[in-house]
Amino acid sequence: MTRALIADDERLMREQLRARLKEVWPELEIVAEAKNGHDAVALTEQHHPDIVFLDIRMPGLTGVDAARQIAQLPTFEDAQGWPGCEIVFITAYDQYAVQAFEQGVVDYVLKPAERERLQVTVQRIRQRMAERAHHTPDETESADTPLATHTPEMQQLLQRLSSQLNPQAPAKLQWIQATVRQAIQMIPVEDVLFFISDEKYTRVQTATVEALIRKPIKELVEEIDMNLFWQIHRSTLVNIKAIAGVSRDERGRQLVSVRGLTEKLEVSRSYAGLFKAM
Questions:
Q1: b vs e for 35-57, b when ≥16 Cβ sit within 10 Å of the residue's Cβ?
Q2: Which residue among 97, 125, 158 closes a domain?
Q3: In Å, how far from its chain's centre is CA 178?
């Protein structure tokens, strides 16, 4: 059974969407409801739904920023047994947001939810889920279609929408202050070939310098310009201009070659669709 979570700070809107979903997708199970963005992230991590319906404008943490955090939650590649979820935004009419959503990067539902429009959204979600159902977590190759939250287009869209909803947010990072041997060095973000994290530190790699910072990837995703980087793993960001090619190892895993380096970066299952033509 497909499982979903609804997040909206208006109780009547949650009830109305639940009723409409029951009409167009009777077998869909609503496992939880959230009143704000923080609860939406926590309940997603707790219940591991297949779909999360997120109101764009919620107090505390917007639906857009909640989606960005949900995209960073552990999935089956981290032995959690969860392949991730589809995101559907709930919004009152907002010209900028609707124009962005109409480009097909992400599904949306206008308030109040109308049966006909919701049916279109449900049909698209079910089609994508059916495509991925042919692949299981223990297979060497992933489905051709990555989760919407794991595409560069989605990450860039969420970053733009977040800036629109949070006009007072700090500007994107231009410099990284990192430890190189015993010294602190300022590294231009555009010079970074990739960021890769372990449990405590993130390695910052340029063509000439390897440095360490105490900042996880999920924070870097919030702070750097995602038009410059692709996330290829929950622990890895790679500069788009630094990608030399993609190959597969004997286990079928995708490996990204980085210009000027012999080291290769593993692409996780959740992000393997980024390179589906290779």
A1: bbbbbbbebbeeebbbbbbbbbb
A2: 158
A3: 26
pLDDT tens-digit map of 67-109: 989 988 877 655 456 778 889 998 886 666 677 676 666 788 8
Q: Which distant-in-sequence residues (6+ apart) come within 8 Å of 194 by Cβ?
A: 205, 236, 237, 238, 239, 242, 258, 265
pTM for this structure?
Answer: 0.79
CB distance 272 to 248 below 8 Å: no
CB atoms within 10 A of CB 114: 12
Is residue 14 domain-shared with residue 145, that is, in the same domain? yes
User: Are 195 and 239 within 8 A, CB to CB?
Assistant: no
